[in-house]
């Protein structure tokens, strides 16, 4: 009997932080392990208490990784209604306040023993490898698949000297992703291009949203008023997450949109500024703290307004469509996947935004077919992932020597030698504190500190 493949999914965030790289890899692990054909391990960051307080909402903290694992599993099972036998492992990490991101500490590939290393999925491969110092991912694992979640270039462009920073980051991303990943999946064309990459949405929606959509469809068929509320938006409350664009559109078209009421939901460092800007509008725009999108408070809204162009593939847009709502969003590569659904209304300019919003508020959402609902599901997303990553094939093995002609063999060998040399340069550069700091690494992140070693039982890393 053939040995089951082992898939290790490394990601850059963990619940209770409700961000895409915490939620989507968790569902991916659950659905890849659901049928029992594969051994799956989800590898997530562990933060010490002081860093947990900076990241996790509602003052939620954990005294041990086993406590956090229990929280994660309960959250998942409440939404999937099935038990999935995948493993959860933690790697040491720290929260970078300036980047609003969790960054790995030490060689996180060592979480998976060498004898179990088979297939690695790097959720946000550039993020996980910027400061990687340790075993080369391609050498340790038979296959390394990167899934690009975030349009880092778009965020960086909004900073001071943004264009220069974006230029440098683009080349850094291409470098690290190229030397550490065999294949790259881009969720949409909104991300930068990479060698050996393919565009495919390999994310689905929480089954709860599809259930909500089915209930709303039943209400529509009975002739009931399924959607009694108007327009809303939900997202992390940062200006870069679409709030600036939305409030600008509302401000510039207050006369045309007279009578429109919009509810905003989110938590983040720009909450107070967003609230202040909303109060200056003549329109009624209510700003509310963030909450789970599946909360009953959202069920009766009919229109989801999302003008963001920084997302790669917006999870909340997919969730709104699954709930049967009309979505008004920008005609942007990040929304290409959603255009196949009749309730997705895109616009190219401000006037079209006003027109699309008016139409959405006066019309009733179209009924989703079973095929359309399935396309939004995690079952379909998992099928797409297995096909694109070619993991649905009988086996995956480390690349062997080419049997082509001598010229092709020589060319392949030269490319490998150049890649090996490039990887060695990165290994050396990432091994010095000065060079790490120069590229933006967190101070002291080359190895876990004593506190992290004790919390994770990483005696091997313990520093004297």
From TrEMBL:
Keyword Membrane (UniProt): yes
EC number of the protein: 2.4.1.241
Record-annotated Glycosyl transferase family domain positions: 228-334
GO cellular component: chloroplast outer membrane
Broad EC category: transferase
Principal subcellular localization: plastid
Keywords attached to this entry: Chloroplast, Glycosyltransferase, Membrane, Plastid, Plastid outer membrane, Signal, Transferase
GO molecular function: digalactosyldiacylglycerol synthase activity
GO biological process, one term: galactolipid biosynthetic process
Name of a matching Pfam family: Glycos_transf_1
Compartments where located: Plastid, Chloroplast outer membrane
Organism domain of life: Eukaryota
Catalytic activity field: a 1,2-diacyl-3-O-(beta-D-galactosyl)-sn-glycerol + UDP-alpha-D-galactose = a 1,2-diacyl-3-O-[alpha-D-galactosyl-(1->6)-beta-D-galactosyl]-sn-glycerol + UDP + H(+)
Family: Belongs to the glycosyltransferase group 1 family. Glycosyltransferase 4 subfamily.
Name of the protein: Digalactosyldiacylglycerol synthase 2, chloroplastic
Organism name: Jatropha curcas (Barbados nut)
